[in-house]
Amino acid sequence: MAFTTANRARAREIIAQYPVATSATLPLLHLTQDQDGWVSPEAMEEIARLLDMTPAQVLGVCSFYTMFKREPVGRLVVSVCTNVSCLVNGGPELLRALEDAHLDDEDVHVEEVECIAACDLAPVMQVNYDYHGPVTPEAAETIIEEYKRGARRPRTVSGTRVGAQAGH
Amino acid sequence: MPETRIVTARLHDHSKDSWTIDRYLATGGYEALRKALGMTPEQIGEEQVKASGLRGRGGAGFGTGQKWSFLPKGVYPRYLAVNADEGEPSTFKDHMLIERDPHQLLEGSIISAFAIECHIAFIYVRGEFALGYERLERAVADAYARGFLGKDILGSGFDLDVILHRGAGAYIAGDETGLLSSLEGERAMPRIKPPFPAVQGLFAKPTVVNNVETLSAVPHIIDRGGDWYASLGVNRSTGTRIFSVSGHVERPANYEVELGTPFRELIEGLAGGVPGGRKMKFFIPGGASSPWLMPEHLDEPTDMDHVQNDLKSMLGSGAIMVFDETTDPLRVAWRLAKFFAHESCGKCTPCREGSGWIEKILYRMANGLGRPQDLDLLLDFGDNIVPGLNAPFAQTTICALGSSIMSPVVSLDRFFRDEIQARMTEDTQARIPVTAAESGGGRVA
């Protein structure tokens, strides 16, 4: 079983919200990624059972969406935008610097992403889906270090706040 | 010229707590809902929203009241799907409205649900909007607690549940029918229309899909009247609109102005123009999907029909990207093509195959490996994606992503042909092979 007992109960609540159960596919994939930091094959099998789908159908959906990680990625996902407003404001240089710095870093997964709708902050990055921008490579590195040593509290790799009340 | 702040008034005036229920109620929040619940659905839809001339702010610009009126009579259940999956490159207005005024969106959604007689509304929130989702979650909980959602809202007998649904990183989920596929738990692949969502949408039931900014305007239309809203703006482009201005400008930000305001006011006035005394080379007026415009177009009004019919572009999502004289237009075109190639869902052949080829050719052109015939090659097979290559674009694909790929290419041909041809010399035919790894081979998450 992939879900914890509490999360399996939560999964059933989520499913019950929808007129048709399969609508819960994305929410359950987020739930398992919140729990484990990635979407394991076992999790997809359990989601398939809960939704009366086949594991292949769940994998087909999961693999379409870039936020779902089908292998462990470390606890910090750093997303760097290189789309046009960031392109002309140092986004590619930021990406390269962070990629180089964290090549062998087990904690930090640096990825290039498409526009994350914060072009007023270009060049912009997200760390577990919290925005930081505009940032130089040096400023970005400082922020990542703060997350690593606990001075900043990261969300889950699916972007859910851990144990805090919503709205703050 | 100052902004005309309607949907962005609260978030500017109360920037410290504009997203809280207390601030919302203290600034007149949910009064429009109270008023709307005393009206009939027809009065809201026909007499107010249709009369306001409000058109969809997501990109297509379709009449909101008209969209509602397409719901077949007597067919229930019906659904409202709120499109909060903002992803058009350089658009960041819905992101702001969700994070900083979630109750305004909620109130607009409740009024709209009442007007279309639906009892379940879904808000499809872009997955990357972590804080926005959190604030919406809180707003929904507070709205239930105060009786603005749930059973018998404010004693009116009207019931509505709102379900928040997180996306997970797919631009195409922002397409109206792609969103419905995603909400049903599938890959976010668009569907052939007809049947239109109004007839067969979510779970094959009549469905209205409206954008965040569109719905955020609804409480104001109810509060102050459709005629008042229609008195703002120009021609068939009524009301105000939030323009996201970014790129090479002094003050990149969202600016809410009356439609019809000239581009120059937005770019040079409000956003402060190009920094460092440099000149503007070109600008993109309505998101990545829109054909580009030049400095000579700066005094044109932001009138949706004028931009489409006379300037052969579109206001799209209202995202204005500005590029200075140091910018290589080929590099911008390549990056946009890379975006479309990455986000193509793969359902239609012209888009799936065409986007990849266009990206590869633009890559070699932008990196000193282009050939003199490359621009014509792009136009030649682009003609298979957009027959005729004339704006507004014809489509050979189910949704507009396919044709959008050609916007950068057509723009290069229209404004920069000479500059590009001068760079594509025979020397560059040294036949250095362009490998997959070079041509944007890096995966974009």
Name some characteristics of this structure:
heterodimer, A: 168 residues, alpha+beta, Arc Repressor Mutant, subunit A, Glutaredoxin, four-stranded mixed β-sheet, 7 helices, 42% helix, disordered C terminus, B: 445 residues, alpha/beta, Rossmann fold, Ubiquitin-like (UB roll), de novo design (two linked rop proteins), 3 domains, four-stranded parallel β-sheet, 18 helices
- Biggest sheet layout of chain A: 4 strands, mixed
- The overall average pLDDT of chain B, rounded, is 95
Radius of gyration of chain A: 17 Å
Order of strands across the main sheet of chain B:
3-2-1-4
Calculate the terminal CA-CA distance of chain A, rounded to whole Å.
34 Å
N-to-C SSE string of chain B, H for helix and E for strand: HHHHHEHHEHEHEHHEEEEHEHEHHHHH
> What's the level 1 CATH class of the largest domain in chain B?
Alpha Beta
Label the CATH architecture of the largest domain in chain A: 3-Layer(aba) Sandwich
Name the CATH architecture of the largest domain in chain B.
Answer: 3-Layer(aba) Sandwich
Shape of chain A: elongated
CATH homologous superfamily label of the largest domain in chain B: NADH-ubiquinone oxidoreductase 51kDa subunit
Unreliable segments of chain A (pLDDT under 50, ≥5 consecutive)? 164-168
Largest interface: A-B, 51 and 68 residues
Count of domains of chain B: 3
Q: How many helices of chain A does DSSP assign?
A: 7
What would the CATH topology of the largest domain in chain B be? Rossmann fold
* Strand numbers in spatial order across the main sheet of chain A: 2-1-3-4
- Strand fraction of chain A equals 5-15%
What does this structure look like?
- The complex is a heterodimer of chains A (168) and B (445).
- Chain A has 168 residues and is α+β, with helices and mostly antiparallel strands.
- Chain A is built from seven helices and four strands; from the N terminus they run ααααβααβββα.
- Chain A has two domains: 5-62, Arc Repressor Mutant, subunit A (Orthogonal Bundle); 76-148, Glutaredoxin (3-Layer(aba) Sandwich).
- In chain A, a hairpin with a 2-residue loop joins strand 3 and strand 4.
- The longest helix of chain A is centred in the N-terminal third of the chain and has 13 residues, at 5-17.
- Chain A is elongated, with a radius of gyration of 17 Å.
- The model of chain A is unreliable at 164-168 (pLDDT under 50).
- Chain B has three domains: 9-231, 3-Layer(aba) Sandwich (Rossmann fold); 242-324, Ubiquitin-like (UB roll); 329-429, NADH-ubiquinone oxidoreductase 51kDa subunit, iron-sulphur binding domain (de novo design (two linked rop proteins)).
- In chain B, the strands form three sheets. Chain B has a four-stranded parallel beta sheet with strand order 3-2-1-4, sandwiched between helices.
- In chain B, helix 15 runs antiparallel to helix 16 (374-382) and helix 16 (374-382) packs antiparallel against helix 18 (406-423).
- The radius of gyration of chain B is 22 Å and the shape is globular.
- Chain B starts with 8 loop residues before the first helix and ends in a 22-residue tail after the last helix.
- Chains A and B meet through helix 2, helix 5 and strand 2 of A and helix 8, strand 3, strand 7, strand 10 and helix 14 of B.
